[in-house]
TrEMBL record, chains A, B:
Residues 13-73 form the HTH tetR-type domain. Residues 36-55 bind DNA. InterPro entries: Homeodomain-like_sf, HTH-type_TetR-like_transc_reg, HTH_TetR, Tet_transcr_reg_TetR-rel_C_sf, TetR_C. Signal peptide: none annotated. The keyword Transmembrane does not apply. This is TetR/AcrR family transcriptional regulator. Coiled coil: none annotated. SUPFAM superfamilies: Homeodomain-like (SSF46689), Tetracyclin repressor-like, C-terminal domain (SSF48498). Keywords: DNA-binding, Transcription, Transcription regulation.
Length: 187, 187
DNA sequence: CTGCCTAAGGCAAAGAGTTTGCGTTTGGTG
DNA sequence: CACCAAACGCAAACTCTTTGCCTTAGGCAG
């Protein structure tokens, strides 16, 4: 239902853009909890029924918007070595995701997502970033792990704690996880 | 708002029990998506406003019920060795949690949970079970990891994949995770 | 370029769920 | 036993959601 095969151009695209923009504006103005479909519709200049028909309900709409905001907008930085690349990425990931708005986006993405497609997309974003880092390391001739291992040892613990135990998370924990997967010496 | 300091006995307790029971009945009869607050209220023999005032909304109520169902009802089995105890527990955990109803409970518990209290409770359940297993191993004289390590290396990957990538999960994966944390030889 | 065809949106009424004020019941407590 | 406040029931007001019907406007074939 989300990321639907809308007609690619014209009115459909305009409506989608305007609704997404309305959601972003209203979230920052009134806070996430104050949103309602009629409110978003009014700001976007459409009728509520349009939103209900396209997205089903508010949660799916928020899920759509959340996934977009979770998409990385830039390739991970190149610091010259696998261990620093991965550490920097993990620290930034934790920082972004563990903030109140980051957590809200993750929850939204997970929630309004009957088929799990949006959650899968989030996971793919992270895996993609890690793949870039590992590929770069391989090209340097470094000895790398594979993506799945890094997902299991770094992304999963970070995400688990963000979702289930938001307390006591800091950059040092992220660094420890990266050390754990590469070996203490940076391998 | 959930797990509130309700008056421990009398009517409040009866209402809570009857509402929880109504949720469980209706979920199994009509499916989770068909639930509404008025429906639950009718079955429970209370008025909708009672539910709204005690739980806030349907999601928080479902979160409450879900957490109860995620609570382990029995101590982890004793198979005589750490590696078999942990493997059996992980396999069962994956099996229960990755089923459609298990996933639904996890999602419900996470979703209707503004302050994260319910999610923390879920995590504590798993940590408690692992602690029992590790303590037993220590008493046997086995060389054990600590709970946090097992959470990071076993629970977190399982949960991450259940939530974000529900495909391709099987008992072998759970076994591999346990081997990873104990060492391939069972340590 | 023109004219169909259909997906998508607008509108408005009907339906359903949510919120709230007020009076009553009922545990807890001195 | 008497009091107090939490919790509940009731019902009205309100908001959100759903739905049928009509109009608009992309896309596409001729």
């Amino acid at each position: 239902m989300s990321r639907q095969m809308v007609r690619p151009g014209g009115r459909s695209a305009r409506v989608q853009a305007s609704v997404h923009a309305a959601v972003r504006e209203l979230v920052s103005e009134l806070g996430r909890d104050a949103l309602t479909v009629p409110l978003v519709a009014q700001r976007a200049g459409v009728t509520p029924s349009t939103i209900y028909r396209r997205w089903g309900d508010l949660r799916e709409l928020l899920s759509d918007v959340a996934v977009e905001r979770l998409r990385p907008d830039t390739a991970p930085g190149d610091h010259g070595a696998l261990s620093s690349d991965l550490t920097a990425w993990a620290e930034q990931f934790l920082d972004e995701m563990s903030s109140p708005t980051g957590r809200a986006h993750i929850r939204d993405a997970l929630l309004g997502d009957p088929d799990g497609g949006n959650a899968g997309r989030c996971s793919a974003y992270a895996a993609g970033q890690i793949d870039v880092i590992l590929t770069r390391a391989t090209e340097r001739g470094e000895n790398t792990s594979d993506v799945e291992t890094v997902v299991d040892h770094v992304v999963a613990p970070l995400m688990y704690r963000i979702l289930f135990r938001p307390d006591g998370l800091d950059a040092a924990y992220a660094r420890r996880l990266v050390e754990g997967v590469l070996g203490p010496a940076g391998r």
